[in-house]
Specification:
Blueprint: H1 2-5, E1 17-20, E2 26-31, H2 37-45, H3 49-56, H4 64-71, E3 79-85, E4 91-99, E5 105-112, H5 121-135, E6 140-146, H6 150-158, E7 162-165, E8 172-178, H7 182-185
Parallel strand pairs: 5-6
Antiparallel strand pairs: 1-2, 2-3, 3-4, 4-5, 6-8, 7-8
Length: about 190
């Protein structure tokens, strides 16, 4: 990891925030870091098969190398925000973007642990991710979800994403959102 420090951006502490869910639960949202590997592994292992399928678009399990990559973020390019209950180490949800080949855009993903769904955590995480994307001068975010994932479709639309059926696969719905980067909103 020390060799990586020179080529990767510093941990973005400015993205850490507190939030309150609809049921009054206090949560912390912060960027993920490599030391979260065990927490990420436990989080993914604890997802129901339905939630895992909705996130990965398949029933497969993640390999150890994939899990490591989920926690080792080059913050100059990508971002992953995790939510934790105040005073508890377990992860409740994760929102991330990964830059596309066109560096002005990124692909998003969001997953909320089964016990925390329906409480507003997904909205809190996705709003914070949108803010981070704007701060990092992204112009657009896009993603895919199952066409049957009505909660994700409703949340995405609520936060300004357009939804469109994928021509190649009707079981998938594409999501896209244009962003006004922070530098433009400030002027």
């Amino acid at each position: 990891m020390n060799a990586d420090r020179g080529r990767w951006a510093a941990y973005p502490t400015h993205l850490a925030a507190k939030g309150t869910l609809r049921d009054g639960t206090l949560v912390s949202v912060r960027p993920i870091h490599a030391a979260d590997l065990r927490l990420e592994c436990a989080f993914v292992a604890g997802l129901s098969s339905q939630t895992r399928y909705e996130r990965l678009l398949s029933a497969r399990r993640l390999l150890p190398g994939e899990l490591r990559r989920l926690t080792r973020i080059d913050y100059r390019r990508d971002m992953a925000l995790v939510a934790q209950r105040e005073g508890a180490p377990a992860l409740l949800g994760v929102a991330r973007y990964v830059r596309l080949d066109d560096p002005s855009g990124a692909e998003i993903a969001l997953v909320v642990g089964d016990a925390w769904q329906g409480r507003g955590l997904g909205e809190l995480l996705l709003r914070r991710l949108l803010d981070a994307a704007r701060q990092h001068d992204l112009d657009r975010l896009e993603g895919l979800t199952l066409s049957t994932n009505l909660r994700m479709l409703a949340l995405a639309r609520k936060l300004g994403f357009a939804a469109h059926r994928e021509l190649q696969d009707a079981t998938l719905t594409g999501l896209s959102c244009r962003l006004a980067p922070a530098r433009l909103r400030a002027s």
